[in-house]
Amino acid sequence: MTAISADEARRFILATLDAALDVPRLRDLLASRPLRVRLGLVDPDCAFVVDSARREVRLLECGECPEAAVLAMSAETAIRCCQGLIDVDDAVATGRIAAEEEAWLVLRALVRDPELTRRFPGIVEAEGRADLVPVAC
C-alpha cells in the first residue's frame, strides 16, 4: 500500500466513518444496535469513538477512555477496510484486527456494505490521493 501520513490516516478514516452515518441503510443498522465503539489504530497511534446512538464519530482526546466496545488494528488495515479489500472475519481470526464481538459485528456490516466503499474514493480523491483508490473502484 502507498504510504500515508498519520494526519491522512486520521482524516480519511474519520471522514469515511462519518460518511457511513449518512447512508440511510447503515444509519438504520447502527441505530438498531446502539453501540459505542472505540477504534484504536497503531502506526500511527490514534483512537476514534463511533457512537451509533448519537450518530457521532470523533477523534479521542489524549487520555480520554470512554466506555465502549473495542476495535484495534493498524492504520493500513483500517484504510484497506475502507477500500473494501479486507475480509474482516479472516482479519479477526488471524489477529490483524482485535475486536470485541459487538464491535466486530458492526465493522463487518460496515465493510460489507457497498455504499461505504463507494464513498471512500471520493474522500481520498478530494484530498489529492487518488493512488489510494482500489483499481476495482
Spell out the key features of this protein:
globular, 47% helix, 137 residues, alpha+beta
Could you please describe the fold and organization of this structure?
The protein has 137 residues and is α+β, with helices and mostly antiparallel strands. Helices cover 47% and strands 19% of the residues. It is built from six helices and five strands; from the N terminus they run ααββββααβαα. It has a five-stranded mixed beta sheet with strand order 3-2-1-4-5. Helix 1 packs parallel to helix 3 and helix 1 crosses helix 6. The radius of gyration is 14 Å and the shape is globular. The mean pLDDT is 82.
Largest sheet: 5 strands, mixed
Order of helices and strands: HHEEEEHHEHH
Portion of residues in beta strands equals 15-25%
Q: What is the count of DSSP helices, taking H or I runs of 4+ residues?
A: 6
Order of strands in the sheet with the most strands?
Answer: 3-2-1-4-5
Radius of gyration: 14 Å
Globally, the shape reads globular
By helix and strand content, what is the structural category? alpha+beta
Helix amount, in percent? 40-55%
Could you give the distance between the termini?
Answer: 16 Å
Total number of strands: 5
Catalogue the unreliable spans.
none
Mean pLDDT: 82
